[in-house]
Amino acid sequence: MDQALSSKKMIALYLAPGLLLLLALVYIPIFQTGYFGLMDWNGIGEMTFIGLENYTLLIRDAAFWDSAWHSLLLAVFSALSLIGYLLISLVLAGKIKGANFLRKIYLVPMLLASVAIAQLWMKIYHPTNGILNTLLISIGIENPPAWLAEPSLALFAIFIPIIWQYAGFYILIYYAALKNIPDSLVESAKIDGASAWDIAWKIKVPLIMNVIKVTIVLAVVGSLKYFDLIYVMTNGGPNGASEVMASYMYGQAFSRFDFGYASAIGFFLLVICLVITWLIRKVTVSDEDIQY
Q1: How do residues 257-280 score in pLDDT, each as one tens digit?
Q2: Which residue, 168, 156, 66, 180, is CA-closest to 108?
Q3: What CA–CA distance (Å, rounded) separates 137 from 110?
Q4: Is residue 289 very low, low, confident or very high in pLDDT (cuts 50, 70, 90)?
Q5: Has residue 3 got a pLDDT over 50?
Q6: What average pLDDT does this structure show over 180-200?
Q7: Taking residues 167-178, what's their average pLDDT?
Q8: Helix or strand or coil: residue 183?
Q9: How far is CA 84 from CA 17, 80, 166, 199, 264, in A?
Q10: How far apart are CA 249 and CA 258, in angstroms?
């Protein structure tokens, strides 16, 4: 009995530093954000309690819901891009010639800072000297668009570098999962006459489905709170056409100095992320997960 109690104390002692860090860096800031959302506060002076006024204003704020729609579109595009990442990983895991070199190429965007990526793609999208418009002019398109200056194009123009930025991350995850599949299963399927398509979609993909579920959550939730590259490339412009929830929150806090309203947006964003994570979990849950 004493030995069991001593073991529990040792476990608690080992867990305590991590739990304290989690409490200090995650849970306390979350509760503080919700608390600040109940205040009228400019970030410097005294706070004035206004109850749920910031949250009711949030519900009526058309600009916020536009930014929420943009974030949702980014989440959908990010989730769909996982299909492409998975296809690339299946090819790389198939022992093709030059697979090691290709894996290194796909990892390059992960090594670059978001600011560097933003600057790179701003040069690509430049209306007069950019590579993209120069190429379009060379094939006969006389008046190519100003990609980051037109409201109808800016948001989707930003989606491309975001998807490119995280390609290596998800390809690496899928590749590692595929490499953990025993070769004996693949060889047995080949002996039974299974085609490469059947092996890929009836054997390999089902075996890494748990990994795919995790990447869906990572891609969707990460997109909902995405900020840095959009802030550098367009700062939410033109006229809010590329504004997302995180950039809108930043603008409310550091441009309008309305930290109370910005905190309400941040807390609401947290709730949205939790709800969507729960929905993804409910939709993708399998019988094996329930039994486990």
Answers
A1: 999 999 999 999 999 999 998 998
A2: 168
A3: 31
A4: low
A5: yes
A6: 83
A7: 92
A8: helix
A9: 40, 8, 12, 18, 36
A10: 9
pLDDT for the residue numbered 292: 42
Q: Which residues contact 161 (CB under 8 A, 6 or more apart)?
A: 117, 118, 120, 121, 229, 233
CB 37 within 8 A of CB 260: yes
Q: DSSP letter string over 15-62?
A: HHHHHHHHIIIIIHHHHHHHHHTTEE--SSS--EE-TTHHHHHHHH-H
Cα 87 to its chain centre, rounded Å, is: 19
- What are the CA-CA distances from residue 215 to residues 79, 80, 219, 280, 281 (Å)? 9, 11, 6, 11, 12
Structure-token match 């519900």, residue found: 59
Read off the pLDDT of residues 207-245 as tens digits, 9 standing for 90 and up. Answer: 999 999 999 999 999 999 899 899 999 999 888 999 999
Contacts 24+ apart (CB under 8 A), 76-81: 77/159, 77/163, 77/223, 78/162, 78/163, 78/166, 78/219, 78/220, 78/222, 78/223, 79/216, 79/219, 79/220, 79/223, 81/163, 81/167, 81/170, 81/219
